[in-house]
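Re: beginner question about structure tokens

> Can someone show what the tokenized structure looks like for a real chain? I only ever see the sequence side.

Sure, here's an example I had lying around. Input first:
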Amino acid sequence: MIHPYSHYPARAARRWSDRIALIDSDRRRTYAELNRNADTIALWLMQLGMQPGERVALIQQNCIEYVESVIGIARAGGALVPMLGALTESEHTFMLEDADARFVIAMTPESAQRVLASISGNIRVLSFQDAEGITNISSLPSSTEGGPPQADLPPGSIAHILYSSGTTGRPKGITHSYASVSAAMNFWAHTFALQPEDNLLGQLALSHFGGRAMDSCWIAGGTLVILPEADPVSILDTIEKQQISMMLAVPTLLRILLDHPKAEQVDLSSLRAVVYAASPAAPSLVRRAQQKLGSVLYTGFGQTEAYGLNTLMLPAEHDKALAGKEERLTSVGRECTQAQVRIRNDEGVDVETGEVGEIWICAPWTTPGFWQRPELDEARLVGGWLRTGDLGRVDEDGYFYLADRKEDMIITGGFNVYPAEVENALMEHKAIAECGVYSVPDKKWGEAINASVVLRSGHQVTDDELLAFTKTLLARFKVPKAIHIVDELPKTAVGKILRRILREPYWKDQNTGIRGAE
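And the corresponding structure tokens:
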């Protein structure tokens, strides 16, 4: 099987050679140019001795060269190891060493030098410009005589090693095969009915969630409009100027865009699909987005281990929820056509409708295994099913609802409390921009609920007022014992709030993260 990141861009170059594949500020690439440049990068890597199956790391920077490098690595048969550019040197070093990468490609000499200073061993550092100790791959001689190189490996071969964002500690390498990557790409392209006329926004990190906009374009012949970062003014201006038809967003970004004054000054009517995912969205935010953007909202449940969407809620279902079933705004939708999703107990038995259990997934885009972590394979891959580690429930109509990560659940006075439910209640308050809920040790209850909140610009409220507000929405045992108003919340590089960091100061002298009453 040809690596899907090689096959689909080459096919797009044959079908739509003169169509614009990439827009990056004032720069453009047609599909023919993109494919030709990827051929050249593949040949450079092969000339340097790269063998099919070897790991090649790529430091993310949203730009044309990043996309060309992704395809070039795949075309030469390399296993791609994308790394967020926003990560620290120590995080990059850990991933490079854990993946046993042979090469690392950086977009700029500055990021290449940063890697060079922190690595050891036989990793070769490559970039697109001259710098001391770094191979400038663009200066290497190349030839495409005889046709482009196309490594052909079994469908189960490793295509990617994706490192988790570290919400639960040290990142783990999650592998995806040629087959699982192809399935995910086709899911995104076909589910959202992408066409050559579609312009997709690439404002999120192309190494992570934003990559789904990138690779689905290759199947449909659409155009990826790249932004270097998720700046709200640039995003809003670009949607209007480039007539963006589809964008992916994490809920935090969606809120920032809706809050920005610029949102009232630009025409956003070109949008036909806005997919919000990667973290929960409060019903109040969904209502605001629907009011501003119209019937264009999609959401679903996916994770790095299963990066097609496994559940999906369509715009019409959002409309129905707003018209009378508002509790459904917290749902991540129903099973997708190609996915099977179950809620099960610790023994792997389906729980009753409405009960909380662990979410299990069986789909063609799930990981075939964890990189050099057989204990995770044994714990989380069971008979073709992926144990996600996320808790959820399903209602009588088949709609799924996320509860939390299993490790984030709070046990207070014998009651199980899921932080997401408390966070959704807090987010109903007009003054709150974002919040994180977590446990602290408590002699009476074992664990008590705390919350840290960031206020929206121009709003003021006291912690006592927020406590009083939550008491109107939550059962008494779910109400936080304390609410802290802070300037910012700790997050991963892709914007997920790190509850682990919020609770750590309270638990550092304790023996365990879950305790009983004393």
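Each token stands for a local structural state, so reading them left to right follows the chain. Confidence is low (pLDDT under 50) at residues 511-518.
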